[in-house]
Specification:
166 residues, alpha/beta, 6-stranded mixed sheet, binds guanosine-5'-triphosphate, lipoprotein
């Protein structure tokens, strides 16, 4: 079973880093901004089902926003990423979810990741507000750190499980 997942979120929140850590167990402190979307495959088992996830990394900078539908239109799941040290990046997640619901409805499985939890001391996004929002849109939330390899397998396992069950 082949499943397509798209990583969405503001520039610099850590989408490329999440992908590289999850698929190749690599991390770069000076990861460059993505200018062109690309994907990596990862095999994953969900119970007795073997799935191949094609995880698409997209460019987060605002000037690329209009390209979004090209990548999410036929996706089975979306991982919406924000940076816990950047309040604006969480507002951007809310904007993405509105857009996804409008264009692809509830067909697509959505999971939200609060990345860079290794920088907890610089947190700018209020946790209670995040949890309330996630509940209101029925999306699961995970804390992740691509840098320290925290929460990523949990996050993708959950996404895969929901996509397989759909
Ligand atoms: P765009 O390509 O512009 O959309 O950015 P992106 O969302 O793909 O972010 P990227 O992975 O390029 O990471 C941006 C910066 O944040 C890089 O310098 C990364 O090293 C850093 N970074 C990514 N994840 C983490 C993390 O979990 N913790 C910390 N401390 N830094 C991180």
């Amino acid at each position: 079973m082949r499943l397509k997942v798209v990583l969405l979120g503001e520039g610099r929140v850590g989408k490329t880093s999440i992908l590289l850590r999850y698929v190749r167990d690599e991390f770069a402190e000076k990861q460059q901004s993505t200018l062109q979307a690309s994907y990596l495959d990862k095999r994953i088992s969900v119970g007795a089902t073997n799935a191949q996830l094609s995880v698409w990394d997209t460019a987060g900078q605002e000037r690329f926003h209009a390209l979004g539908p090209i990548y999410y239109r036929d996706a089975d799941g979306a991982l919406l990423v924000y940076d816990i040290t950047d309040a604006e990046s969480f507002s951007k997640v809310q904007k993405w979810i509105k857009e996804l619901r409008k264009i692809v409805g509830t067909e697509i499985t959505i999971v939200i990741a609060g990345n860079k939890v290794d920088l907890e001391r610089n947190r700018q996004v209020d946790e209670a507000q995040v949890f309330e929002y996630c509940k209101s849109v029925g999306a699961k939330h995970f804390y992740t750190s691509a840098k320290q390899n925290v929460g990523l397998s949990e996050c993708f396992n959950d996404l895969a499980k929901n996509m397989v069950e759909k």
